[in-house]
C-alpha cells in the first residue's frame, strides 16, 4: 500500500511509520510526505531516509481551495492508496475529504469524541479526567471524530503538566498509528456507519 503522509512539525509519528516499514513490520511504502511548513523537522527525517517530500504552503495560494487542490494533485500524482494525517495542523475541507473517501486517517491525542480540536492534552488536564489517550480514526467531515479504528488509554497522573502528559500519550501514538495503517493495508478495516470492525484483531 502506498502512503501519502501529511505533516506540519516534528514528525515523530512519521518516524514511527518509517521505523515500522524499515523493520519489516509494515507492508507499505511512503510515496510522498507533504508538509505545510518548510521548517518542519519531519522534512529532515525524509531527507535522512530518502523519502520523497514536498512543501505546500497555504500562503502561496489565494484561497484554501487552491491550496487543497495542490495537495490533492500531489497525492494523486504519487498514486497514494491511503492518506495519513500525522500531526498535520490544518482542518481539511469536505472537498479534500471527498477526494479520498474512507482513505484518510488521522492520529489525535485524546480518546475521541472527548477533547477534539486543538490542545487535546491541555483540555484533558483542565477537565480533570483520570484517563485519556489517543485515537486513530477515519477522517470524515466531523472534526477529529470519524469512525474509530484503534484507541489506547493513558493515565493522567497528579503532577502531570501538558508536556509530561503529551509525552506519555505520544509513546502510545507511535504504537497505534503503524498498527492502524497495517490493518488498512491488510484490508481488515470494515466500516459500517460509525462502527469499525477490524477483521481478526485480538483485543
Ligand atoms: C501528535 O500529538 C498528534 O497526535 C497531533 O500532533 C502531534 C504531532 O506530533 N495531531 P509529531 O509531529 O508526529 O511528532
TrEMBL record:
<dbReference type="InterPro" id="IPR001555">
    <property type="entry name" value="GART_AS"/>
</dbReference>
<comment type="similarity">
    <text>Belongs to the GART family.</text>
</comment>
<feature type="binding site">
    <location>
        <begin position="89"/>
        <end position="92"/>
    </location>
    <ligand>
        <name>(6R)-10-formyltetrahydrofolate</name>
    </ligand>
</feature>
<feature type="domain" description="Formyl transferase N-terminal">
    <location>
        <begin position="1"/>
        <end position="181"/>
    </location>
</feature>
<dbReference type="InterPro" id="IPR004607">
    <property type="entry name" value="GART"/>
</dbReference>
<dbReference type="InterPro" id="IPR036477">
    <property type="entry name" value="Formyl_transf_N_sf"/>
</dbReference>
<protein>
    <recommendedName>
        <fullName>Phosphoribosylglycinamide formyltransferase</fullName>
        <ecNumber>2.1.2.2</ecNumber>
    </recommendedName>
</protein>
<feature type="binding site">
    <location>
        <position position="106"/>
    </location>
    <ligand>
        <name>(6R)-10-formyltetrahydrofolate</name>
    </ligand>
</feature>
<dbReference type="GO" id="GO:0004644">
    <property type="term" value="F:phosphoribosylglycinamide formyltransferase activity"/>
</dbReference>
<keyword id="KW-0658">Purine biosynthesis</keyword>
<dbReference type="GO" id="GO:0005829">
    <property type="term" value="C:cytosol"/>
</dbReference>
<comment type="pathway">
    <text>Purine metabolism; IMP biosynthesis via de novo pathway; N(2)-formyl-N(1)-(5-phospho-D-ribosyl)glycinamide from N(1)-(5-phospho-D-ribosyl)glycinamide (10-formyl THF route): step 1/1.</text>
</comment>
<feature type="site" description="Raises pKa of active site His">
    <location>
        <position position="144"/>
    </location>
</feature>
<comment type="function">
    <text>Catalyzes the transfer of a formyl group from 10-formyltetrahydrofolate to 5-phospho-ribosyl-glycinamide (GAR), producing 5-phospho-ribosyl-N-formylglycinamide (FGAR) and tetrahydrofolate.</text>
</comment>
<feature type="active site" description="Proton donor">
    <location>
        <position position="108"/>
    </location>
</feature>
<feature type="binding site">
    <location>
        <begin position="11"/>
        <end position="13"/>
    </location>
    <ligand>
        <name>N(1)-(5-phospho-beta-D-ribosyl)glycinamide</name>
    </ligand>
</feature>
<dbReference type="InterPro" id="IPR002376">
    <property type="entry name" value="Formyl_transf_N"/>
</dbReference>
<dbReference type="GO" id="GO:0006189">
    <property type="term" value="P:'de novo' IMP biosynthetic process"/>
</dbReference>
<dbReference type="Pfam" id="PF00551">
    <property type="entry name" value="Formyl_trans_N"/>
</dbReference>
<keyword id="KW-0808">Transferase</keyword>
Amino acid at each position: 500500500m502506498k502512503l501519502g503522509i501529511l505533516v506540519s512539525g516534528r514528525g515523530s509519528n512519521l518516524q514511527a511509520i518509517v521505523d515500522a516499514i524499515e523493520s519489516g513490520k509494515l507492508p507499505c511504502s511512503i510515496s510522498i510526505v507533504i508538509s505545510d511548513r518548510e521548517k518542519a523537522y519531519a522534512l529532515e527525517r525524509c531527507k535522512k531516509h530518502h523519502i520523497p517530500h514536498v512543501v505546500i504552503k497555504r500562503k502561496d495560494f489565494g484561497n484554501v481551495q487552491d491550496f487543497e487542490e495542490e495537495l490533492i494533485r500531489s497525492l494523486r500524482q504519487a498514486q497514494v492508496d491511503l492518506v495519513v494525517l500525522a500531526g498535520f495542523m490544518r482542518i481539511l475541507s469536505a472537498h479534500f475529504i471527498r477526494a479520498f473517501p474512507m482513505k484518510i486517517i488521522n492520529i489525535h491525542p485524546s480518546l475521541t469524541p472527548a477533547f477534539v480540536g486543538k490542545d487535546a492534552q491541555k483540555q484533558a488536564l483542565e477537565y480533570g479526567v483520570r484517563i485519556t489517550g489517543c485515537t486513530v480514526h477515519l477522517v470524515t467531515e466531523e472534526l477529529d471524530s470519524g469512525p474509530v479504528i484503534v484507541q489506547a488509554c493513558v493515565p493522567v497522573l497528579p503532577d502531570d503538566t501538558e508536556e509530561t502528559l503529551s509525552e506519555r500519550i505520544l509513546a502510545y501514538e507511535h504504537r497505534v498509528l503503524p498498527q492502524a495503517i497495517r490493518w488498512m493495508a491488510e484490508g481488515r478495516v470494515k466500516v459500517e456507519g460509525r462502527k469499525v470492525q477490524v477483521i481478526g484483531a485480538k483485543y
